[in-house]
């Protein structure tokens, strides 16, 4: 069963993947129209801000806007110069600091960014914040949200197809046998997809956002070596609370830091050619 599901997903992706992620060149499945993604994003972003404690007229809020704008300029420069400008169509960049103890930040499709105040003790400086914003913006640039939604649509379609095929294959069996097979497909299929499809691919997207984010922060004039320092601080603060990597939608701290160290020499080239920050 596991091999069949993996083969079906691989075939679906091979046939329909028609987009490539900037910088990495990875092929991806994009099915949802960009206008629909942006419309949903802008509506949800406004609703979130309307019900949150947005911080304004403070030094930290100004820093979020300042770093966010430099990341934006780096992203637009790279995308427009390398044939990916179409991915930025409809973007309406916004950067907001929200009062919250959550150690987190995010960027929705269309450049809608939120930084929670709880992460600032870990970023410590502008380069640390650039690490976070570079990573989050990269999710939007790489259209990871659309990709996950598209894969979900395919997964649901394949599950339904599997249930139909099972019904046909077991039509001559007793009702009890048919029910057992349908139950196996109904419960086993989603679990298979979760552990052998969704979670591994989510970890790949996170690593990809780390890669793109490292380049974008370097292009924006922030020392990419600061990204390693930031994730080391996060790892130290996180302790042992993270699940085993294969059960997580994020790579382990150790893997993330090791991957960034490998990418650092290339990122330094972009940094050396950028406007340096003090």
TrEMBL record:
Cofactor(s) needed? Zn(2+)
Q: Which Pfam families does its entry note? A: Peptidase_M48
Gene Ontology cellular-component terms for this entry are: membrane
Task: State whether keyword Signal applies.
Answer: yes
Tagged with keyword Metal-binding: yes
Report the record's Gene Ontology biological process terms: protein quality control for misfolded or incompletely synthesized proteins
A single Gene Ontology MF term assigned here is: metal ion binding
Which spans are transmembrane here? none
Q: How is the cofactor bound?
A: Binds 1 zinc ion per subunit.
> What are the coiled-coil residue ranges?
none
From the UniProt annotation, give the residues forming the signal peptide: 1-19
Ranges for domain Peptidase M48: 70-262
Which UniProt key words apply to this protein? Answer: Hydrolase, Metal-binding, Metalloprotease, Protease, Signal, Zinc
User: What domain of life does the native source organism fall in?
Assistant: Bacteria
Concerning CDD domains, the annotation shows:
M48C_Oma1_like
Q: Which PANTHER family does the protein's record reference?
A: METALLOENDOPEPTIDASE OMA1 (PTHR22726), PEPTIDASE M48 DOMAIN-CONTAINING PROTEIN (PTHR22726:SF18)
Instruction: Say which family it is in.
Output: Belongs to the peptidase M48 family.
Query: Per its record, how is this protein called by name?
Result: M48 family metallopeptidase
Task: Provide the species name.
Answer: Spirosoma agri
